[in-house]
Every structure is written in C-alpha cells, then in structure tokens.
Amino acid sequence: MSRPEHMRPDIRLVIADIDGTLVTKEKLLTPHSIRAVEMLQKAGIIFGVTTGRPPRGVKMLVDPLPHLRFIAGFNGGVIVSRDFSPFAENLLAVHIAKQIAKILLEHNMDVWLYTEKDWFIRDPQAYRVAREQTTVQFPPTVITTFEGTIEHVAKIVGVSQQDDVVARCEKYVQETFGAQVSAARSQPFYLDITHPKANKGEVVHLASSFFGVSPRQIATIGDMANDISMFKNSGVSIAMGNASREVQEAATFVTDSNQAEGFAKAVTEFILPREGASAA
C-alpha cells in the first residue's frame, strides 16, 4: 500500500507490537530493528511498545533499545516507563475475574493469571508453558487454587491447542461480558482477557495524552487482530506481512513479515520523513 508523501501526517510517536512485529519468530531483535529505533530517535520521534506480555517479560528489550520510552504490558493493563516504574494500571474486577476463570475451565482451556509482577499457572507441563517461559524469561508460580491470586489480576489468558475452541470462547466471553472486559486472541491458541481499558486502542489515547501528541501524529505497527484497535485510533497504521488479511485490510500500509525485516522497513518506508518532506 502507498499514498502520496504529502498526504502522510508528520509522525511524532510510534507504538509497536512486539511478538510477530518487532521481533522474529525466534523472539530475536535484529540489528536492523535496533537501527530503525535509533533512526526514530534521531528524527525526534518517541518510541514505545505495547504487548500482551507482562512488563517484566520485556526486560530483554531495554538494553538494546536505550531510546525505548514506555512499555504497555498486558495490552495496556499495566503501563511502565523504561525503568519499570508503573504509571498506569487497569486491573480486572475480582468478581469478573472469577467468572472468566470458570468459563475458561468450562471450555477445557488452561488458565493463566498475571498480576503486575507474577504469572500463576496450575500445571507446569501444560501446553505452551515452557514456550511462554522462554518468551517472558521468568518462571511461573504453580498454584492449586485461584484464591489469593485472582484479587489482583491484570490479565487472564485462556490457552488451548484447539484454535476453534479459543475462537468460540472469545465470542462467548465477548457476548457475555460486553464492555466489561476486553477479550481478544493475541495468538490462535491464546485468548487474552483484560480490563476494558486494557486494550491497544486505549494505549494510543494514553500515549497521546501523556506525551501531548495528536493521535493523527501517532503511527502504530502490528500483526494480530488485537492490534486493529490501535490502528483505528492512530493517524498511520502498518500491518506486518505475516498478518492475516483482516489485519492488513485494517491498516494504512502493509510492510514485509517479521522474518524479512518488516519492522525496520515500516520505519524507513512509511514513518521517517522522506527527502523533500518535512521532519516530524
């Protein structure tokens, strides 16, 4: 996708998803991506990330990205600065969290609970647990009951190897709770449930307010259905080449995949000022 340079707004802030966008499928940050963030900083453009991961699971990005300004973990459930000091939280109401956990179990899905700092599971051998531990780079805490942990939940994840089960449960939760929660698949096998203000669209609004930047001057980059809400709220949106057709059609532009330096290309081709264009 493309459009004339003069039609692009001057971008002052960029928000990128992490998994499937900023990093490769091996969860690696490439030298080209690091360089792209450096180029944003030199152009005076603020850079932040938003992710379904807990903030603690993004520590591996802090050292190679010294210009990273904020991390919106849990899709906006807990937002922290680069030193991990929180400045915004949106936690699930206790009674709703208990109902959600019950529904997930009834759908034969595994249930993960995330608080600001901890990750609670029931079975350390369950599907995707080992992979998730590698991704977030800290171990889960095994529990036998939700009591005592579900009172401070930022995100609940339903997990299943059956993608159709996850899709059906997503629809059921959305229909049952409506605007009381934000429920969306971050991966075909993950259903993320958070506070209604803990979604990527709200992250755009918060960043706009906090940094004094118009939403029209914000660019967002993502690859999954839960990134569409931030696409809708930003001036420029860029879908990854590995995104589904639905996600690509919701974006202003489409870049290459995360395996083909799509993030770096999105920055250089669609965000940074081009020759003859005004700087952001």
Describe this protein's structure:
This protein is an alpha/beta fold. It folds into two domains: 5-89 and 199-271, 3-Layer(aba) Sandwich (Rossmann fold), CATH 3.40.50.1000; 94-194, Hypothetical Protein, Haloacid Dehalogenase-like Hydrolase, Chain: A, domain 2. The protein has eight helices and 14 strands. The protein has helices at residues 31-42, 94-106, 129-136, 163-177, 200-211, 228-233, 245-249, 262-271; strands at residues 13-17, 46-50, 68-73, 78-81, 86-89, 110-114, 119-121, 141-142, 155-159, 182-187, 190-194, 218-222, 236-239, 253-254. It has an eight-stranded mixed β-sheet with strand order 5-4-3-2-1-12-13-14, sandwiched between helices. Strands 8-7-6-9-11-10 form a six-stranded mixed β-sheet, with helices on one face. α1 packs parallel to α8 (262-271). The model is unreliable at 1-6 and 275-280 (pLDDT under 50).
